[in-house]
Amino acid sequence: MRTITYVATEQDAGKRAEQVLLGPMQVSRSLLSRLKRRPDGICVNGQRVYSTYVLRAGDMVSAEVGDREPPRTVPPVEMDLVVAFEDEDFLVVDKPANLPVHPTKDPGEKSLEQGLLAYLSGGDSPHFVSRLDKGTTGLMLVTKSGYAHELMKRRLHTNAFHREYLAVAEGRVIPSCGTVDAPIGLADGSSYRHCVCPDGAASTTAYETLKTAGDRTLLRLLPQTGRTHQLRVHMAHLGFPLTGDWLYGRRCERIDRPALHSHRLLFRHPLTGEWIECISPLPKDMEGLLN
Q1: Is the peptide bond before 175 cis (omega within 30 degrees of 0)?
Q2: Can 12 be counted among the known catalytic residues?
Q3: In Å, what is the CA distance from 58 to each residue of 3, 9, 55, 120, 219?
């Protein structure tokens, strides 16, 4: 079970324990409410206290912030996972192609969530900060508790969290770089397909051409918002759908998925302040499209 600690400073003297929990310890109010009910939820110098306990300088405040949820109904499945980074609170996994993040209606289809449930131990459970479509490959940030997940949710779409994708698009993209600022919503009559529409959610993507090869373009894509299928929809909206994207473009015999890869992940660790950077190279099936 994950426990976080904090040493009260001179400035904290006279404050209630809940004030440093909600402040420098970055506990949410909903989690604080749950901590109050746990036998060892809030401790000072190793002793259980109420949240109203008045602190002295040098007091060691600890909180048990790990998940205490009922057992998941999703069965764990052993699988080979490529982990690019891991510590007590986070891991970055490099997702392969055609692996869904969550279980599907097909009982025989494995999911990344099931693989992570088998991988994690000690009561940890996966919480996905960023999700990828089934066909999209590359880096995903996962937290091991709801506490860490809440910390990263606060940092999404800020300078503390940066995602960079590589994509192969059909055609020679013109202009070679720019920004797509076009709202995205569900297409009429569909519960899955999205499109650019006036009443959609604000969506912004920056793009840059890295290479052209025949009638295809290798792009760097930088999403500034996080809408469903955003990168695929925006490139199709420009008239350059991703190669192999059967939903927004057309199928391709050389790749059985949209040519999209989560290439670089950079984030500031909310507990240590350290910058964490992970890079995943261009997959072979996408590289082959450019030869």
Answers
A1: yes
A2: no
A3: 18, 6, 9, 34, 53
pLDDT per residue as tens digits for the range 197-224: 999 999 999 999 999 999 999 999 999 9
Q: Radius of gyration over alpha carbons of the chain, in Å?
A: 22
What is the residue range of 250's domain?
163-262
Helices 146-153 + 29-37 axis angle, to 10: 160
CATH code for the domain of 15: 3.10.290.10
Amino acid letter, residue 70: P
Beta carbons within 10 angstroms of residue 37's beta carbon: 8
Residue type, 268: R
Residue 206 in domain:
yes
In a domain, 125, yes or no: no
Q: What is the CATH number of the domain that holds 235?
A: 3.30.2350.10
**E strand or H helix at 116:** helix 112-119
Of 64, 80, 95, the domain-final residue: 64
**Is 80 among the domain residues?**
no
Last residue of a domain, one of 64, 89, 112: 64
| Selected catalytic residue, list 94, 133, 245, 285 | 133
Alpha carbon 213 to its chain centroid, in Å, reads 31
**Domain count along the chain:** 2
| Rounded Cα distance, 204 and 227, in Å | 9
The pTM (predicted TM-score) of the whole model is: 0.90
Q: Extract long-range pairs of 246-253: CB within 8 Å, 24+ residues apart.
A: 247/192, 247/193, 248/193, 249/170, 252/289
**What confidence score (pLDDT) does residue 291 get?**
87
Does residue 183 have a pLDDT over 90? Answer: yes
CB count, 10 Å around CB of 171? 15
CA angle 116, 34, 57 (to 5 degrees): 105
Domain membership flag for residue 59 = yes
